[in-house]
Design goal:
Blueprint (H helix, E strand, L loop, with lengths): L9 E3 L5 H11 L4 E7 L2 E14 L2 E10 L7 E5 L7 H12 L3 E5 L14 E3 L3 H12 L3 H16 L10 E6 L1 H12 L4 E7 L23 E7 H6 L2 H13 L3 E6 L15 H18 L2
Parallel strand pairs: 5-6, 5-8, 8-9, 9-10, 10-11
Antiparallel strand pairs: 1-7, 2-3, 3-4, 4-6
Helix pairs in contact: 4-5
Length: 292
């Protein structure tokens, strides 16, 4: 769920100023640029490149990351939250690549706008600003999301750095949690691991397209990290998810973290570094065991 109560305060990132973002775009547009990714004190050379992915509905702007040097690594798709592809999600992609993955972070709203879709200060409590984002999300139909997922994994498969083991991961934040469930069902032959972070109450609904109903169509292990305020609003959801995983015989961990919706993404008022790092450690372990 993404509303003014779940996302309090401003989401800020000075890198989204016109001048800073223009400089960053020039640095990565159309060329491979090698950056030093610092992840918990561990440096790793990572290649970062802005790319375009052809989909059934058009062309998606995205960013691709992979370790520098020769080799091949498992593929991972990252679905951003409702504020879309922005520097905070480039940081996530860069960090993952530094750990040994080929990572694609798409602009989920490419049908409506080029990334980034917010500026350096976004107030989620502002109805006008919030309505614009929810309108972008409404343009993403279930069929469209499924087709996008297929296109994104096909694009990753064309990358020479991507491992040919056929095992890939997908992770999502906020609305991206539900999109990750859909991806695991739409590309079930590829996705072996799913991470959902503060996916909100949209993971279990009474609608026939509820993401939890897709679990039997997947072949993945799951990590579901829920926010404490999401759990307060819908405490039964974690039990419904656990029951669905058991019924489908899918390995899964479902935990409620001591942090609020949005806690994993830097720049938000609710960012919680300690709990974000705990979630990252759990994700790293999931990928280590599932994508080998």
């Amino acid at each position: 769920m993404c509303d003014e109560f779940i996302h309090p305060g401003l989401v800020t990132d000075s890198r989204l100023s016109r001048r800073s973002f223009a400089a960053m775009t020039v640095a990565t547009a159309g060329i491979s640029s090698t950056a030093l990714a610092q992840t918990n004190g561990i440096g790793a050379n990572v290649v970062e490149k802005d790319v375009e992915v052809k989909t059934a509905d058009g062309t998606c702007d995205a960013v691709l990351f992979h370790p520098a040097g020769k080799g091949s690594w498992p593929a991972v798709l990252v679905w951003p939250d409702i504020m879309g592809l922005r520097p905070a999600f480039r940081d996530i992609g860069r960090r993952l690549a530094g750990q040994g993955y080929v990572v694609l972070v798409p602009n989920p709203f490419y049908r409506s706008a080029h990334a980034p879709v917010i500026g350096e200060n976004f107030d989620f409590s502002n109805p006008e600003q919030r309505t614009r984002l929810t309108g972008y999300r409404a343009a993403m139909t279930d069929d469209g999301i499924d087709h996008d997922a297929v296109a994104y994994l096909a694009f990753l498969d064309t990358q020479p750095q991507a491992s040919k083991t056929r095992k890939a991961g997908v992770q999502g934040y906020c609305m991206g949690g539900a999109l990750s469930f859909r991806t695991a069902a739409a590309v079930s032959g590829r996705i072996a691991a799913v991470g959902s972070f503060h996916g909100g109450n949209g993971l279990v609904t009474k609608n026939p397209n509820s993401p939890h109903l897709l679990i039997p169509k997947t072949n993945a292990s799951f990590l579901v990290c829920q926010a404490q305020n999401d759990d307060t609003q819908q405490p039964q959801m974690k039990d419904d998810l656990k029951a669905a995983f058991v019924a489908a015989n899918r390995p899964a961990t479902v935990d409620v973290y001591q942090a609020n919706h949005g806690w994993c993404v830097k720049g938000g008022a609710v960012y919680n570094e300690a709990e974000a790092e705990r979630a990252w450690t759990a994700l790293s372990q999931l990928y280590k065991t599932s994508l080998a």
